[in-house]
Design brief:
Elements: H1 6-20, H2 26-43, H3 47-60, E1 65-73, H4 78-88, E2 92-101, E3 104-112, H5 120-133, E4 136-142, H6 143-149
Antiparallel strand pairs: 1-3, 1-4, 2-3
Helix pairs in contact: 1-2, 4-5
């Protein structure tokens, strides 16, 4: 087996950081990198071949997390309506925040869609349609796009 080079470890760290996202801490990143390096070293496979598989899987996979932002006049059933759509698509809500400002309602959700059998566009269209039924403006974006738009 080839020895891991600094470049290989950097790639592993970058992939781990991508997977952990903003929840990454130095400890969690180190744990994921060490586990991956250990797996690669014990597998007996060529490191280059392992990375080809990782890259191919990453290219085939859909983006894992989306950001949903919705706002409009407050009314009963907004949260229930949006989360029902997510449940129908087997999406997992990672985090959410909502705020009432007098008669106005805003919500922002971070959602994992990796286990959904639906594609991003289907989920997005259903959320927008539900938002229209609730008189909301709904914006659905891949987390990567959202982060890129909000970098300083």
């Amino acid at each position: 087996m080839n020895q891991l080079k600094e470049e290989d470890i950097r790639k592993i760290a970058e992939e781990a950081l991508r997977q952990l996202g903003h929840s990454a801490s130095p400890e969690s990143l180190e744990k994921v990198v060490k586990a991956t390096v250990s797996k690669l070293e014990s597998s007996g496979n060529d490191v280059v071949e392992e990375w080809k598989e990782v890259k191919a899987t990453r290219l085939k996979s859909k983006h894992d997390r989306i950001i949903i932002t919705a706002f409009g006049k407050n009314r009963t059933g907004i949260l229930a309506g949006l989360t029902a759509v997510l449940a129908q698509h087997q999406c997992d809500i990672i985090d959410l925040t909502q705020k009432l400002m007098q008669e106005f309602f805003t919500i922002m959700l971070l959602v994992d869609i990796s286990e959904s059998s639906s594609d991003f566009e289907s989920i997005k269209n259903d959320l927008i349609q539900k938002g229209e039924a609730l008189d909301l403006k709904v914006i659905v974006q891949h987390e990567e796009i959202f982060n890129a738009m909000h970098r300083i």
